[in-house]
Amino acid sequence: MASAEFAVNNKVHTATKVLPFIANYRREMRMGGDIRKSGKVEKATEFMERIKKVYEEARAALKKVQEDMKRQADRERKETEDWKKGDKVMSSTKDLVFKERLVKKLVDRNVGPYTIEEVVSTNTVKLCLLISMRIHLVVNVSRIVQYKEQVEGQKKEEGKPIEVEGVEEWKVEKILNKKK
């Protein structure tokens, strides 16, 4: 364990460009042997100047790494829309579980429209959902999309089932395509 700790503390850190031991203890690591130094003892002011220089270098290196990380993280981010109370939105079905639909690929991507009841923060909104949905009312804005009214004639009309011997069935008008 001691040799592993020594190896970690004696290697220049990629972010700070300084040995972790020097950054923490403000001095070089000793590797055993004679602990008495031969020669003159360093003056306190020179020591402090050297330590300040190490800290400034570490601070500059950390600032550069932080800016690089922010730039990489912001590449995938996009500006959020300004949501208002009363806006109509569609909610994502990504993590919802539907008991009546067993095949996930046949479930709509978004369900709704629902109205925004309250804007909790720039990142979350409270929706006016049905109690039967049994999900939390506050959702992240990444899970909602703006509802767009359908153009006249665009509304899809679902067929009405026919009851045959107590079982609901649908009447097929025409087969559009088939596999050979």
Key attributes of the depicted protein:
2 domains, five-stranded antiparallel β-sheet, SH3 type barrels, two-stranded antiparallel sheet, 180 residues, 26% helix, single chain
Structural description of this entry:
By secondary structure, this protein is an alpha+beta fold. It folds into two domains: 2-30 and 42-74, no CATH class; 78-149, SH3 type barrels, CATH 2.30.30. Helices cover 26% and strands 18% of the residues. It is built from three helices and seven strands; from the N terminus they run αααβββββββ. It has helices spanning 2-9, 20-25, 44-75, and strands at 88-92, 110-119, 124-128, 138-140, 144-146, 162-164, 167-169. The strands form two sheets. A five-stranded antiparallel beta sheet has the order 4-3-2-1-5, with no helix packed on it. Strands 6-7 form a two-stranded antiparallel ribbon. The radius of gyration is 32 Å and the shape is elongated.
Please summarize what this structure is:
The protein is of the alpha+beta class and 180 residues long. The chain is 26% helix and 18% strand.
Poorly predicted residue ranges? none
CATH topology of the largest domain: SH3 type barrels
Q: What percentage of amino acids are in beta strands?
A: 15-25%
Please give the alpha-carbon distance between the first and last residues: 69 Å
Helix-residue proportion: 25-40%
